[in-house]
Amino acid sequence: MEKINQARLFSGKRILVVEDEYFVADETRRKLENLGAIVVGPTANIRRALDLIAGEDVDAAILDVHLGDELVFAVADELEARQINFVFATGYDPSFVPTKYNGFALCEKPTELEKIAVALFGATDGLKRLD
Fold first, then answer.
1. Closest by Cα among 128, 77, 86 to 107
2. Nearest 5 degrees, angle CA 86-CA 9-CA 93?
3. Is the preceding omega at residue 42 within 30 degrees of 0, hence cis?
């Protein structure tokens, strides 16, 4: 997917980034901002992520599965309850993700923004959904 197409999908969208690795979070933030997204966070903390969801407009989220000693699933549950699209981004084996989340996209680190864009916002402008 070309950068111009990614920019169409991300432009103006408020994306929550939940990531505990500083350099990955910062790189993701910079890439999203270059595509016209407004980054909410990033945060490495579940409590802070839940506070951001409650206090900010969020169009979609990119969630690291493992945040230090915690797993991000409380954040995923809150996003799902609010009908906010999200993807899991992880370097770990996908078997760590409970089966209740099988319908949600799983992207490997480093963050695959092309795959994430289509997973979050669907195929538009002639783009096809990635498998």
1. 86
2. 35
3. yes
Q: Of 48, 41, 93, nearest to 75 (Cα)? A: 48
Question: 50 with 26: CB under 8 angstroms?
Answer: no
**Cα 82 from chain centroid?**
15
- 80 CB-near residues (< 8 Å, 6+ apart): 86
Residues 6+ positions from 3 with CB-CB distance below 8 Å: 35
Whose tokens are 């929550």? That residue is: 16
Show the tokens assigned to 25: 């979070």
- The model's pLDDT over 112-122, given as tens digits with 9 standing for 90+, comes to 777 787 778 77
The DSSP symbol for 119 reads H
- At 110, is the secondary structure helix, strand, or coil? coil
Mean pLDDT for the chain overall = 83
Confidence check: pLDDT of 99 > 60: yes
**% of residues, the chain, pLDDT over 90:** 50
Task: Tally the C-alpha atoms within 13 A of residue 18's C-alpha that lie toward its C-beta.
Answer: 31
pLDDT greater than 50 at residue 88:
yes
